[in-house]
C-alpha cells in the first residue's frame, strides 16, 4: 500500500471515530443535562428558585453517561472495522492479478488432463494386450484375477 493510500485510510478511520465520539459525547451531555441538570444548576446558581432535583436524576445521569460511552466505543470499533476491511479489499483488488491466477490454474488443470490421457492410453494398450492374449475375449473377472496376481 502506498503511503498516500495509508494516510487517506487513516484519516478516514479517524474521521469516523471522531464522529462516533461526537455522538457519544452528545448522549453523555444529554444525560448529564437531563439527569443532573437541576442538581448542577442548583449548585451553580443557574436555576435559582427552581424545584429540588428529583430522585430520578441519578439513574438518568448514569444511564446517559454509560450509554454515551458505549455508543462512542462501539462506533469507534465499527469505524475501525469498516475502514480496515474496505482498505484491505481495495488493496487486494489493486494488487491481485486475476489473469496470472487463471493462467496458473489452467496450467495445473492442463497438466492433470494430460496425465489422465496418458494413463488412459496406457490402460487401453494394456487391455488390448490382454485381449490379444485371451483370443479376443475380455472379462473383468480375468482382469481382476490377473491384477491381483501381479500385485
Give an overview of the whole structure.
- This protein folds into 2 domains: about 1-95, no CATH class; about 95-150.
- It has helices at about 5-45, 55-95, 100-135, 140-150.
- The two termini are about 60 Å apart.
- α1 runs antiparallel to α2.
- By secondary structure, the chain is mainly alpha-helical.
- The radius of gyration is 38 Å and the shape is elongated.
- The longest helix has about 40 residues, at about 5-45.
- The protein contains 4 helices and no strands.
Summarize this structure as a short list of keywords or feature phrases.
2 domains, 85% helix, mainly alpha, 151 residues
Secondary-structure topology with pairs:
Elements: H1 3-44, H2 57-95, H3 98-133, H4 140-150
Helix pairs in contact: 1-2
Count of discrete alpha- or pi-helical segments spanning 4 or more residues: 4
Q: From N to C, what is the helix and strand string?
A: HHHH
Q: Characterize the overall form.
A: elongated
> How many distinct folded domains?
2
Any idea what the radius of gyration is? 38 Å
Report the average pLDDT across residues.
79
- Approximate helicity band: over 70%
Please outline the major beta sheet: none
Distance between the termini: 58 Å
Report the strand count.
0
Oligomeric state of this protein: single chain
Helix-strand category: mainly alpha
| Beta-strand residue percentage | under 5%
